[in-house]
Fold each of these.
Amino acid sequence: MRVLGEQELRDIAAGSAVLGTGGGGDPYLGTLVAVRAFQQYGPLKLVTADELDDEAMVVYPFVIGSPVPLIEKFPLGKEMVQAYETLNRFLHGRVQAVMPIEIGGINSMVPFFIAARLGIPVVDGDCMGRAYPEVQLVTLTMYGIGASPFAIADERGNSVVLHTVDNFWAERFARSVAVDMGAICAGAAYPVTGKQVKEAAVLGSISYTERIGRAIREANAAKQDAIAAIVEVTNGVVIFRGKIVDVQRRTSRGWALGEAVLEGMEADAGSQMVVRFQNENLVAIRDGEIVASVPDLITIMDAESGQAITTEHLRYGFRVVVLGIPCDPKWRTPAGIALGGPRHFRYDIDYVPLERRFGRSGQRAGVRGEAGASPSPRAGR
Amino acid sequence: MRVLGEQELRDIAAGSAVLGTGGGGDPYLGTLVAVRAFQQYGPLKLVTADELDDEAMVVYPFVIGSPVPLIEKFPLGKEMVQAYETLNRFLHGRVQAVMPIEIGGINSMVPFFIAARLGIPVVDGDCMGRAYPEVQLVTLTMYGIGASPFAIADERGNSVVLHTVDNFWAERFARSVAVDMGAICAGAAYPVTGKQVKEAAVLGSISYTERIGRAIREANAAKQDAIAAIVEVTNGVVIFRGKIVDVQRRTSRGWALGEAVLEGMEADAGSQMVVRFQNENLVAIRDGEIVASVPDLITIMDAESGQAITTEHLRYGFRVVVLGIPCDPKWRTPAGIALGGPRHFRYDIDYVPLERRFGRSGQRAGVRGEAGASPSPRAGR
């Protein structure tokens, strides 16, 4: 168990935005959530999965919907607690810890808000090791773990509980309800045991984001290259440097869909890159060829500060770096690629790991990945 | 308590189609549901509201969605039981009786199916005295009674439970989930006490449909005028006789929306009538002027047999009679007109009771209405 103060929470929020691959919500709002939780409730407890009893019950509180209206509708608060409590009531009050469903500006921090308020710990890990735009896109799905019961709540006091035959149906209903609720709302789902967390989640990803956030902060303080510091910590690769010359974005079915077009600079002068997104960045296309894709992480960062830019904040004229970061090994299994790979998002290409294309080692420095663990290929329950 | 046999159930199904005002599902399917329930479980029990304890818990099982896919997806069964049981679990197994939410080809009969299967009685009444296309359009809403908890289930095994701040939100979420489930699914909602049934429901409407159905059957057997027999029982008025010359119908948000155009015959020769519907018939427009509207009932019937024709079965060339039937007195209060009157459906006209326009007495022969009871004007809870 580790106690986190304000600095650690700020680092986690900043690092989360990098792994959020453009989605997961505004990192500034995430920082606000974390700092508010700290100021109101004091230091927050982070535990490792090893510290969980096998029988402990853990749930995932999160925000679901498009990040665009989140900016207007923030702060969330009451509805997060309501979603959590609706789920916990279903589980007869047995929830002992919470965990982020994904790593992203907001959704990394939401569990800290709930945990601080209820005096329970956050488990160091998540279910993606990144952010993804659909609720079935979690490593838990590869292990046949269901999202149900799945509680959803809005700021008016409405709540909905789903029991679905698989996690694809959970996504479908949750998306419709989120749209009805104003395109953004609070969710709590995927009740799991400590044993299931140890087997099926992505472990250590909160600490990983903290290391990334600290590296950015220290580089900026020392006036050093923040991008280089991120590359070092994440074993990432700079896949493009350029200027944003066009952004198309629309909100549909509760997602921010679109693309950013970049004109190359420095070594990439004369080339063009298009980054397509569905809340999160899905593919990076260089001069017509896909050079990086899900499940690997594609993050667009401010070229100077190394701050990640979420899809809703992309603007014409920004000078940016596109960074590729290897995904968690669970996503590189056949089950992982089938679930969250390019074909799921209708890109008819084979997934090529980032390092194979860009000549990296493929060793992942950050997350304590269990590369040998091969999930069973059941999709949902 | 009265025991109903196959003949009574067939009469109820036929009469329900008349009060279904074009919606509420295919009367043939409703008859199938009833007869199947009878054949499988024997005679069915019908109780009056007076026979209910004030504390008895009653719920409303129903089908929600567009009647068009119902034809393909029938028979329903498993999902109806699942919706009911999901709700009953929420209510700690305390449900003692069921009641139709509306009168219509299918939804009048669904409670008999559930009741027969579980060995509980059906209460003689409903919450509309007709059919309406939205779940908040029930007399219960006028009395501040909420739809929640509201259970929804599909044939795959998915279920959803809504807890909403008012019945308009219940409609919104239920509609979205119904669309996701294939535009039609099973619901169970509006848990009420016996005391609330006595005050806020439309009482006696099952017996009323039975009298209508029997009148049609006896008239046809005696080769007499079935339409005249219906007019007699319902205190209705024939507002048009003609031939269908055009039908427009589309399915949107889980509703069958559209209109039928009729060319006048006999006394109405030279005139045109347009009947607009949203699952149910909403307004009848004669030569450009609205001559009948919700909350009064507008039913299109086969001119020969007196069989009601639901909106999904309207076809070019049918010779029909358009019948107007006075609605339950609860709908004629200010709260009732605000909830289910023409302006709710975006017809910017004042509601004029059918009898005022067509010179009838305004006395209702059928349903035991409580004309003096003025519901409190709260809309939902």
Amino acid sequence: MNTSIGVGVLGAGTVGGTLISRLVDDREAIATKTGLELCVKRVAVRDLAKERDFTVDDGVLTDDLLSVVNDPEIDLIVELMGGRDLAGDLVLAALEAGKPVVTANKELVASRGPELIAAAERTGVPFLFEAAVGGGIPIIRPLSETLAGEPIERVLGIVNGTTNFILTRMAEDGADYADVLAEAQELGYAEPDPTADVSGADAAAKAAILASLAFGTWVGLDDVYHEGIEDLSPIDLVFAADFGYSVKLIGIAERIMGGVSARVHPVMIPVDHPLASIRGATNAIFIQGPSVGELLFAGPGAGGAPTATAVLGDVIDAARETLAGAQVAPKIRFSPGELVPFGDVATKWYLRIEVDDQPGVLAQVAGAFGSAGVSIKSVWQEGEGDEALLLIVTHRAREADQQEALRHLEEIDTVRSVAAVIRVESEEA
Amino acid sequence: MNTSIGVGVLGAGTVGGTLISRLVDDREAIATKTGLELCVKRVAVRDLAKERDFTVDDGVLTDDLLSVVNDPEIDLIVELMGGRDLAGDLVLAALEAGKPVVTANKELVASRGPELIAAAERTGVPFLFEAAVGGGIPIIRPLSETLAGEPIERVLGIVNGTTNFILTRMAEDGADYADVLAEAQELGYAEPDPTADVSGADAAAKAAILASLAFGTWVGLDDVYHEGIEDLSPIDLVFAADFGYSVKLIGIAERIMGGVSARVHPVMIPVDHPLASIRGATNAIFIQGPSVGELLFAGPGAGGAPTATAVLGDVIDAARETLAGAQVAPKIRFSPGELVPFGDVATKWYLRIEVDDQPGVLAQVAGAFGSAGVSIKSVWQEGEGDEALLLIVTHRAREADQQEALRHLEEIDTVRSVAAVIRVESEEA
């Protein structure tokens, strides 16, 4: 029986380089454990002259992407180049040619998932992307296979390690956002251009994938509202702790109001929630369902080695299927469903408001909420000379109504500034 | 395209009953989400007259087990009857007849796994047992698929909810083992005959399965040393907390000394270890690997609903494969490996020793350890009248040497009793 699989890799950055090293160095160990001979036949890179941490035979490196996809000796494509257009076209070409594809590209899956999944279904080959969410944490298979029969209600995920590292340092050391970001960049936890991480865009792509798999309704990247951590101040993390909350950047996928909602924003979450204690660059995904109850998956969410482990698991799985010569049964199926616009989602808000310290201000502020139909749960007031600080937590109300209250607030003369707004997740109304 | 699958269920206890209810009640929802028509054709029960929580058509219930396996309208068998002999023979017959089998029977998998996996491989059908470990927590697929390329070093699991419930109550309320056991029985967290849980036997079957999948070397039920929680006293849980440890019943699967070790016993684990904070009947599995780092999976480890979710996920997966008409690629492969006898495993011990309060006793006690080649890490002594209490923590030493030290201790006249022995897991030597 033939047990050899020719592997072509598109992109040899951090994850790609680590994967290739392991395919080459652990070739025998993998063969012993799995019975598969995984042979790296070609690796497409942008710069042939650049020095690499891995060693491959002469002629394996190429800068011709399409030649890898078209090589008849290559049975399986691993896409680790990133981006959605070129990468997506190459993945599509491979799937249409009947070659299984493994990718870690969350942006690609979140933007072109249905098209690629449909192509894989037509030719009956695996299209696997375990590494696209949560790095080394197994989450795609559990969601799409183990929990296939569970009407999942809610998925909450800390799915971006950079922002969780920054928030942990801000909360524990009272450090400013800008200082911690600079530190994270020095440590390699944040990119030189950190926008995708700190803006919530990276987490939004992952939330889109989690929502799509959890609910079986396609949620695209552009369907996910996202808001980042750039405007958070350490003082609000302190107030949050006083109130019994941690502040985390969380991807939320929920079945609500007969539809599906997916969004990413900073969240005040009760300190006894399992996600509240996830520190540093660790990722964690929390799943709720009526039968299965509450599940937590935690581990390293990024980094070359854990992500390469997830990619390698997919490569082994796809290679097994390919050698079995099977028409692969599609594991993912989308049916139509309604997306709930973010403005209709009911949330609770925490607000820090700077006001003139004079009689009647609180009544005016309360009126702003009242006229928007938002009711206030608690107010905490502190005077400081001629200025006072109001910390307000509202009851649950439509996001659009909360935004209306915010506009009313900003029109009040005695309101100097709405200095912070953070949404609150808790069981209570 | 035919999308209908005839399902036969062997056993309709708590898990079986819940599964059947969901297959019947959620039939349309499952069809929408997965594209599969899952039809419960026959259910084998011991007592046809017993009232059931689920409703099936006339003629579906039977007390003839073999008729379910042999029914040509049944494409897929779910085994939930328990036990290893009869259940195993029926599962084997189904697999040999080319019918996929899903089971939650940990004892069966841990005792006859290789035989059944080989039979499934011969006929190319799925043999799935996600529910056998960790109830609703997805762990079998992550271990055998996502982490297939990771040379896993260590798996630590709280895999028995009954004992974790009892230990949590003992630690938090200082309650006696016997009292908490009685309470757990009243609450339905413990069986009327709790032996399998409290003796560690249930956890041993799960540890055998985890070790086999993690290391790709078959570890049978009888290869797992196990020790239960029956002899633990609340006072040792208090001392453990003073020293910075929690006491948990843990299944340990490790690659050590060029081989594989699997064992279950009470463990003092540092309070900052992720498993230390797992409370009540929750299960959790902690995995360490050189690339993936540390992963934690937590959730409800037992109960009809979560376990039925895991079984249903397997049923859907097996049904998809069956409809794809594919020769299923085997996901699990065992290669030879050495099992390290428990006596050769290096462990640290905590001991509570009652001695006469007189000069020279400590020297005698220290001598008992020294003559067995075990070195002492710390001693804490407390006098109480003419009796003294010694709390000793040793450095890591071979289990057999620790046992020899124990025999020497028990021969010393001034040692009244070795009142407690608990093994300690920590990073230090």
Amino acid sequence: MKIVIIGGVAGGASCAARLRRIDEAAEIVMIERGPYVSYANCGLPYHVGGVIEDEASLLIANPQLFRDQFAIDVRISTEATAIDAKAKTVTVRDLATGAERAETYDKLVLAPGATSIKPPLPGIDLPGIFHVRTVPDARAIRHWLGANPKGKRAVVIGGGFIGLEMVENLVHQDLAVTLVEMADQILAPLDVEQARPAEALLRRHGVTLVLGDSVTGFVKNPSGAIDVATKSGATYPADIVILALGVRPDTALAKSAGLTLGDRGGIKVDAHMRTSDPAIYAVGDAVEVRDIVTDADTLLALAGPANRQGRIAADNIAGRTSVFRGVQGTAIIGLFGTTFAWTGASEKTLRRLGRTAYEKIYLYPNHHARYYPGAKMISMKLIFAKSDGRILGAQAYGEDGVDRRIDVIATLIQKGGTVYDLEEAELCYAPQYGSAKDAANFAGMIAANVLRKDMPLVHWNAGNTSLLLDVRDPAEIEAYAVPGALNIPLKQLRARLAEVPRDREIAVICRSGQRAYLATRILLQNGYAAKTLSGGVLAVQQSET
Amino acid sequence: MKIVIIGGVAGGASCAARLRRIDEAAEIVMIERGPYVSYANCGLPYHVGGVIEDEASLLIANPQLFRDQFAIDVRISTEATAIDAKAKTVTVRDLATGAERAETYDKLVLAPGATSIKPPLPGIDLPGIFHVRTVPDARAIRHWLGANPKGKRAVVIGGGFIGLEMVENLVHQDLAVTLVEMADQILAPLDVEQARPAEALLRRHGVTLVLGDSVTGFVKNPSGAIDVATKSGATYPADIVILALGVRPDTALAKSAGLTLGDRGGIKVDAHMRTSDPAIYAVGDAVEVRDIVTDADTLLALAGPANRQGRIAADNIAGRTSVFRGVQGTAIIGLFGTTFAWTGASEKTLRRLGRTAYEKIYLYPNHHARYYPGAKMISMKLIFAKSDGRILGAQAYGEDGVDRRIDVIATLIQKGGTVYDLEEAELCYAPQYGSAKDAANFAGMIAANVLRKDMPLVHWNAGNTSLLLDVRDPAEIEAYAVPGALNIPLKQLRARLAEVPRDREIAVICRSGQRAYLATRILLQNGYAAKTLSGGVLAVQQSET
């Protein structure tokens, strides 16, 4: 059996290696357009920034290793240009010589990845404008920065992972960075109130943030720099421009083979990673995948799922039945010492899909015991089904311990877990690592309190007309007052109940929601229509950053 | 309804607070023998070591807070001495005045905790010998250290959590520390080969380790120091002695009430935390709990489960049906910058219970992408059911990221997850946080390979008589040779297959197991009886530390 794999990075390389492990006799050909296979494109921004100084360390494997360890015929700098699905041949061109030949296959695996979006804007090919998708891209940027040591102004276009990682790495190299993002927020997978703190963080590190504006063109100005013009009429001069507008599935080959594409523009595959042609599989950034939370088809350009898909395609090609369970969109990014991570569905995704039977909570627990020095706050949002408490998604940020809590929640989502599971999770606890009630447990406990109707919730900015009852102590209120709130410290509430009007719904607020919950319990049991303002003053402040 | 709660730390305090939140009308009395409620006993060693400098920060809550926020009648320095279950009264004694009175109850909650084991050894009450169980204990040790600045020799007895945390904190204060442990390993919940590296770590930090020896008595020597004598006949002079021999459930009160105790010596409770007397509940270190992995009754003196139990007892007392799901023994300890953590059952526990239908793997992945600076190795052992791959337990150590991987596995154990779930987990990945194939995924992938029979396993020191085939490169073998091994580098294996004898079972070894797996695949598909040595040279070296 001869298997041809188009693409030699995450999904393709994983597929090739797995195939060989299962089938020592198969003929395996791996074709890669670029000069490298199996390289760490997630590390490119850090190579530009000098954190990863040695380019060679980005090369996880090389063609020789694939030949030596896996007896795989690797052809780099070779492009697949067309597929004849009927004849089971793929046309490949040697990019050095231009020579073309037809490669036959029994099974074909498409792992072409995604291509960086490059809109046809005037001037987009000017020198000094770069993508960050491949090792040569990163090398070119490093070279440009080295050759233009006085060019200290960068414009980064696009506020996704790569854009933001580039922003940080350019700031660390003392460039004055402007970030232009078309949407009204950065980090599109996050709900807007969870993205706002990331925006504030960028501004604190001197980044000029341009939201809700899009680039219309690039002009070389008399000084030799590039003027970046935007729709709003503004111009941002730049010595270097980074294009990070996102990626789209590379489906050119798939189209040439007449394969079915999905609604989101990716290659359509079944759970075995098989395309509409039974001899052709597809994996990685080019395919549409099922989101296990929403059950909707989606695109997710992440290395982890690509690797899993590559292995699963290999299994099925080798005659084993193996199923891809879908994706849940777990992701993480570090920005100036703060980690932002998430998993599952966002509120805006749920709303877009009309799935409104969810509830959400905000909380601000410490990453380890408060009594142990160095405790950092984790800001969390948890989204869960109103009906049965199934966890739908979580978004968190903080200086420490964020990855761990999101991974716990991701694992629960994978297993269909609920907020009741989360409150009962038995996690690592010693004071320098967590709390007896871990941050993740707190999320579960609060959510379960809501579902058990012990804690009716209200959210800030949800247009509520309740009377705000602030149960913090006077010193806290002096530091930050909530306009229009009635102030009764929690410890006086039982004695001063008569001061709370009975004819209105009461929304109780405190610093983070904990004391408000206690006050809500007192009020509810005394016949008041009381609700807790989720996340308290911290949520209010977050939404106002 | 009047509820009396005996014990005001983790389980008791959680129960009291939860009860009030559910039932604003109940009369709640909380009785605590010591001078403090709700204090952080997990922080005591760090207070002794000065990491937590301020004693007040250990006091999570105080009686006034319980009165103000929860309207709970807290009585500190008050001991419950007997229960009359028929009359539903508990005798309480004011430790300051000695006055006794009978307190009636409708429901009684026992949260007396566990007491430090203090064997009746000669000299055990000498000045300079301390427990580390309460805030006054820690204060006394700090005072002693301050008053004896020249006393630089410490003997710590017991190599469990508290003993080891005390060792570290005393070393950090420049004491020469000897640790005496009766068993042949420290950290009893770990399998011995996973504990050995912790022992080596202590030795590297100058600790004198005495294993397999027990203390027989203490004598004040002429210099004023204490001679600690052991069974083997050795004597260890000490200026301070820390007793950390573990704890046993405090069941005196339960016995006075005629409550049923379990085989392990703890108070027997049902899943609702109810004792054999329907009016009496018990929670925390004093009770026996069900281990969800082994289904056996066990004792587990940890704050997290105690808190959960307190809340569940409160629910049931208040008329809500709430069930404690049992424990899995997730735990963590930091030692000199290395973290040791585990969850679920150990191999020795499984063997003790006769549950031998398990398999285990060793692996040594990086905590984040190798290509990003600062990657640290995590040493992992994963134990899983041979039949269906259910994860039974995991033990790991390393300098970073250990808590996170153990928490992921703990969460899967909670949900009955398998190694197949683990290999498919979608976890946070960016190069400074993890790998596209995370350390946890690797554990799942390797285990799944074993169960799918792609990778027959052999373990070091398992008395195997296979021919060892070392597939590392010559430079690696020069640095560390495996005695008696045939050496063929992986990349030459296909060409040199004829050199591998066909009449013997082949055990393939490499550095960590990855190349050995590839070689095993080649050999198996060429008709050899090949197995992979799990964990490779790293596992060999670990077992020989």
